[in-house]
Hints:
2 copies of one chain form a homodimer.
Chain A: H1 2-8, H2 11-19, E1 25-26, H3 27-31, H4 38-50, E2 54-59, E3 62-67, H5 69-83, E4 88-90
Antiparallel strand pairs in A: 1-3, 2-3
Helix pairs in contact in A: 1-4
Chain B binds a DNA duplex through residues 6, 9-10, 12, 26-28, 31, 36-40, 42-47, 58, 60-63.
Amino acid sequence: xxxIFAALAHPTRRQxxxxxxDGELAAGEIAARFNATGPTISRHLSVLRQAGLVTERRDxxxxxxxxxxxxxxxxxxxxxxxxxxxxxxLREVRKRSNxxxxxxxx
Amino acid sequence: xxxIFAALAHPTRRQxxxxxxDGELAAGEIAARFNATGPTISRHLSVLRQAGLVTERRDxxxxxxxxxxxxxxxxxxxxxxxxxxxxxxLREVRKRSNxxxxxxxx
DNA sequence: TCGCTTATTAGCAATGGAGCTAAATGCTAG
DNA sequence: CTAGCATTTAGCTCCATTGCTAATAAGCGA
Lengths: 106, 106
């Protein structure tokens, strides 16, 4: 839990998560979006991976990163529910992912 | 926005927010719940105040802190909605607060 | 194998955060 | 106004993080 909020503390890492929203990206593609050097971004990715917020997968030369949205939503959602439950609602995540991967309020 | 996530990065500060969930507390009352010294907690409170997550109010000798739940929910909720909108829903906060202070999904 | 691309790891300097003790501030009571 | 309580501010040390450059690893293709 502490790892997750520590990972979210840096603006670059939050932006990386947002960039991964629409699908996986190679480390280099991610690095190209920032002013930082490759190694710097690589370390940010390492922090996100250790927090369980992204996963990596090898594709030939490159390493593709993808977002683990459930972990982000569940962890942060748990905290929000514990602190200000009136304002937040976490939608239950379906085990069998079906594209939307959420259980609606119905 | 960055101030908020930076404030949430420390476990003590997250616990303080949670402790304030049920109402305002004096700085000393908060400090008594942790192993840290008064000045250390005072600085944590200062970080939370600068992030807009708590407000302070003087009561004679003491300074009472209270949670600003809307700011926490809206800021973090915005981020979650931007990164994994499928899993999170932010309940709209009612302007005229009525105890529950949320607009249900109806 | 060699060379090229991609990405990570190592090592270092600088910055910032967290914690403490001691000193200052603000307020109330007597 | 003095004493005392509650809290913050100042000043310091220590450790973690961030960022860089240089070096290493891993894969692909000629």
